[in-house]
Amino acid sequence: MKKLISITLVCLLVISLFSVGASAETKEVKFPFELIPSKTVSMDKTAGDSDTTMNFTYSMENDMIQFLQKMQDGKELEKWCKENGLGGIYVNAQVDWAIDDPNDWHHNEFWDDNAGTRLYGIGYDSEGRVRTCEWDDTEVILGIQTTNETWIMRSPGDPDNPEDYAWNGEDYGNGIKRPGLKDVLKQDQYSIVRDENGARVVIDYDKHTAYARMRYMVSFYVPEYDELGAEVGGEYQYVFSDWSDTAAYGKEAAKWTPPTADTAAAPEISNLRVDDELFNDYPIVDYDLYVPTTLSIDITEIAARGGYVLIETEARVKGTSEWTLLQGDNTVKSGMLYSDVLQICGAGKPIPKGCELEFRARYLYDVRESQGGEQTGYFYSPYSNVLTVTFEKDYGTAQPADEQPATQPVTKVPTTDPAPDLKVPEPPVKSLSKGASKTQAAGFIKKLKNDSDPKGSTFGLLSAKQKKAAKNSISISWNKVKGAKSYVIYANKCGKKYSYNYLATVSKTGFTQKKLQKGTYYKYLVAAFDSGDKLLATAKTLHIATKGGKNGNFKKVTTAAKKNKVTLAKKGKSFKLRAKAIPESKKNKVSVHRKMKYESSNPKVASVNSSGKITAKKKGSCVVYAYAQSGAYKKIKVTVKK
Are residues 402 and 476 in the same domain? Predict the structure, then answer.
């Protein structure tokens, strides 16, 4: 079966207030990319105890990726919008679904552009009522990368709860209704299982087949002006690509043959150049990557099954033999990738004017049989061609050797490959524990599929928190970690269907993400690495909402501990913290993505459970943290006397 990728990508623009004028005909806009659907799509059932949920992956064409990369620059975005008479532009995807019949799609008029619904957006009618069912995904957020993924067919609802809108729908009266899943699923396509956990909907994929397809949706804001040229309103308008081919999972799904170390091709890289930006006074070097269709298909299929493909970049001074693994962008996508050049001339040594460096890259594959299944392949591709760049000025400053990054050790293996210094691929890690490499941490984070704190993360070391939230930006900060030389930040919208995307690598203890959607929750992960790119600590997940909507954040935490101190007389004694998170405003409701959490700096002295009960273990002192999803926290000093 021919497969196609569905893509979800967003280019956020600088738009102040959303105001709507009179409805108008759809404006014709010439996009600098071809508006076509994904050429490769794939899907696989998610791991765990989900009975219906699918992981749907889809590819993005190179010209669209390059446009979205360019539009990340606010000035470029503003210029392009002004030239085309727009106030903003977004690129998203829509994902449709079917069970057993690949022609029984759920797309209807409410998925499309309608002048009467532009005040409310896609999925609504002219009165602002939702007219699509729970599984209809009409506005999927995209990441700027070759392959995107999203969870579909989630949350069928509770069939025993008559007020559950996902299952039963919503009746608006006068024969108008939002359909529930019981209205669109046929009775022979599912069963209802009841046990001690309640009732749930189950689809047996040994007997049934799930199908999915996608299309791109470009939405743009068209401002309206009065006779004096003042903006008086405007509206969002929409255009769509065709629908992609169909992905399938279950009884009738076609088989896929995964790549191997023998069939994997080398990266196609070109146009090596020095960036205008610096990292710790050292240069950043960029190159262009081209992703052919065959690789795009493989990445899409691998991602659907819970694996990944990353790209690693290495460099050396021309004329030397030792290659150094660089930190930087490891997401596979056609377009620009960057690498930070720090220790290339040796610890404590600057990069002199006239220095000539060679660069090469290769792919790292993690192939799995299914979501949560066994690993069937873990290997590197051959190296790319070697590119060379010459620096036209001095970079870096000489510092004491003990403050400089150390070259990452290289493990040699016997090989007949033309590249004699082939490294053994690093095995995947099962948690974000201290000592993991940047590649291992990136691979673990890429596979996270929920809003929970990742395994191995801690609060006390980084104490990451919200610093400021505005309508279109979020600032976060964290504590400096001893020995840390860089901090890597991952982010995306909150929600189980949004996996983390790499955001930035910084040396400071703070970061601001701009060009965000107003009134929207975003999640962040911060990881600290030493000079050898080894993991020191990973912060707990932050969940922060931008301003301008109904969503709010927690500003502080209170507990029952007086003066933030607790004294326990001896082993076995306990104290209940009763921590409470206080919202910033009573007007804005805080959607809880993660409940109040607790952490002890030394559980051998005093432990703390999930409800905030501190229990003495032995004589000594420690600190217990009570922290909210925004990172707001209370620090409690605990003393055990004997």
Answer: no
3-state SS class at 295: helix
CA torsion angle 240 77 544 452 (round to 10): 50
Please give the pLDDT value at position 471: 86
Residue 408 in any domain: the answer is yes
264 and 393 housed in the same domain = yes
Looking at the structure, do residues 402 and 262 belong to the same domain, yes or no? yes
Note whether 149 and 274 are same-domain residues: no
pLDDT in tens, 588-599: 888 888 889 999
CA atoms within 13 A on the CB side of 424: 9
- Determine contact, residues 619/640, Cβ cutoff 8 Å: yes
Q: How many CA atoms lie within 13 A of 186 on its CB side?
A: 8
Domain that includes residue 578, residue range:
553-640
Q: Which of 90, 179, 100, 104 is nearest to 134 (CA)?
A: 179
Report the pLDDT value the prediction gives residue 414, as an integer from 0 to 100: 32
**165: amino acid identity, one letter:** Y
What is d(CA 462, CA 477) in angstroms, rounded to the nearest whole number?
Answer: 9
Per-residue confidence (pLDDT) for residue 109, from 0 to 100: 93
Question: Do residues 150 and 293 share a domain?
Answer: no
Residues 210 and 223 in one domain: yes
Q: What is the CATH number of the domain that holds 599?
A: 2.60.40.1080
Q: Mark which of 353, 377, 412 sits at the end of a domain.
A: 412
Mark whether 407 and 330 lie in a shared domain.
Answer: yes
Alpha-carbon distance values, 518 to 77, 87, 140, 209 (Å): 18, 15, 16, 38
CA–centroid distance for 405 within its chain: 28
Q: Classify residue 317: in a domain, yes or no.
A: yes
Taking each continuous run of H as one helix and of E as one strand, the counts in the chain are: 6, 38
What is the model's pLDDT at position 77? Answer: 87
Please state which of the ranges 221-225, 403-407, 580-584, 601-605 shows the lowest mean pLDDT: 403-407
Residue 61 included in any domain: yes
Q: Which residues contact 62 (CB under 8 A, 6 or more apart)?
A: 290, 291, 334, 335
Nearest CA to 407 among 533, 278, 281? 533
Q: pLDDT tens digits for 540-572?
A: 999 999 988 888 999 999 998 888 899 998 998
Nearest to 57 by CA among 156, 143, 185, 122: 143
The span from the CA of 592 to the CA of 452, in Å, is 11
Is 90 exceeded by the pLDDT of residue 638?
yes
Tell me the pLDDT tens digit for each residue of 12-58.
Answer: 333 332 333 334 567 889 999 999 999 999 999 887 646 898 989 99
Indicate whether 375 pLDDT > 90: no
pLDDT of residue 613: 92
DSSP characters over 319-354: T----EEPEE--B--SEEEEEE--STT-TT--B-TT
> How many Å separate Cα 37 from the centre of its chain?
22
Residue 22 domain flag: no
Structural domains of the chain, count: 4
How many degrees, rounded to 5, is the angle at CA 584 between CA 479 and CA 588? 130
Tell me the one-letter amino acid at 228: L
Residue type, 549: G
Mean pLDDT to the nearest integer, 330-344: 85
- Above 50 in pLDDT, residue 405? no
Task: Give the model's pLDDT for residue 5.
Answer: 29
d(CA 153, CA 211): 10
| 605 and 535 part of one domain | no
Side chain identity, residue 419: A
| Cα–Cα distance for residue pair 483/276, rounded to 1 Å | 28
Give this prediction's pTM.
Answer: 0.58
